[in-house]
């Protein structure tokens, strides 16, 4: 952490009419500050204890994924795409394969569609549980993260069984999924969902019943609906400010058009509302996961993927696919020139837009509230820098 002092002449005056000298301080938070989700830098201008200007400075984790896409074939880009938001790897894989399948005009087996929907919702719950545990930790509550990780392990166990991975699943394939569901896996998944559902009240009671937590978050970091729309903020952060938009319901993909997608919203737009949206979203996703398991049980046995040629080439053209990722809207603009590698694959990540609004959100707030606001924005820095 470094400081830079900029001394100037203030406009205030004392009782004798003399000008008072004031001092603004420029404070760099990061790029390796423990209160941030990764390597983010915030350049703050302080007027005493109040933030007068804020500039998010990104790029410290930039890996050039979009350029790497251009020299890897359509099977290999999946392994890169699932890493930018490491808490939502399955969902990040999904957007790429949906874009490629659209370009190919490929119809995916119905069992793969429902299995993808189920796994996307389980991945969403895993993402939300991480933030439900880590956010209270950032404002001084240590216990909730142990509860959150206990519930995460229930779901991680079934995700690891089906894919072999704990974070980077690499289970999506162009045309479906890598393998069929293991024997008895749906029963174990249903049991894990039931266990997590029964324990969610522990997390809610522990955090929302805490007067200190509510005092630190209620009325803090209020985002208006207008700011949300101006900056392209999406996901639970946008819905906490009253923006009733969710791609799963409004522009459905996978099997969401056959499901009753409950969109969780709040109107307060503060840090507490963002946390409550995330908590309620877990319950909504648990319901969707159960509905997917019910439908999978009704489907007859059949293929889980399409057979592909040894060298997969995508016809010349372009398309745009977007998905409702756990942190917000992810967009994938794919351009092909008929080769085995993309000519261009542009990634629109949710966290990038969500973080930019900090420049308007932080000014006017107290330094003491900065961590409470920053933690409630629910971003992953790899998702910003790509």
From TrEMBL:
InterPro entries: NADH_Q_OxRdtase_suD, NADH_UbQ_OxRdtase_49kDa_CS, NDH1_su_D/H, NiFe-Hase_large. Its EC number is 7.1.1.-. It catalyses: a quinone + NADH + 5 H(+)(in) = a quinol + NAD(+) + 4 H(+)(out). It comes from the Bacteria. The keyword Manganese does not apply. It is a peripheral membrane protein. SUPFAM superfamilies: HydB/Nqo4-like. Its main location: membrane. Residues 139-309, 312-386 form the NADH-quinone oxidoreductase subunit D domain. It is found in: Cell membrane. Keywords: Cell membrane, Membrane, NAD, Quinone, Translocase, Transport. NDH-1 is composed of 14 different subunits. Subunits NuoB, C, D, E, F, and G constitute the peripheral sector of the complex. NDH-1 shuttles electrons from NADH, via FMN and iron-sulfur (Fe-S) centers, to quinones in the respiratory chain. The immediate electron acceptor for the enzyme in this species is believed to be a menaquinone. Couples the redox reaction to proton translocation (for every two electrons transferred, four hydrogen ions are translocated across the cytoplasmic membrane), and thus conserves the redox energy in a proton gradient. Belongs to the complex I 49 kDa subunit family. PANTHER family: NADH DEHYDROGENASE [UBIQUINONE] IRON-SULFUR PROTEIN 2, MITOCHONDRIAL (PTHR11993:SF10), NADH-UBIQUINONE OXIDOREDUCTASE 49 KDA SUBUNIT (PTHR11993). This is NADH-quinone oxidoreductase subunit D. It comes from Actinomadura sediminis. The lineage of its organism: Bacteria, Bacillati, Actinomycetota, Actinomycetes, Streptosporangiales. The gene is nuoD.
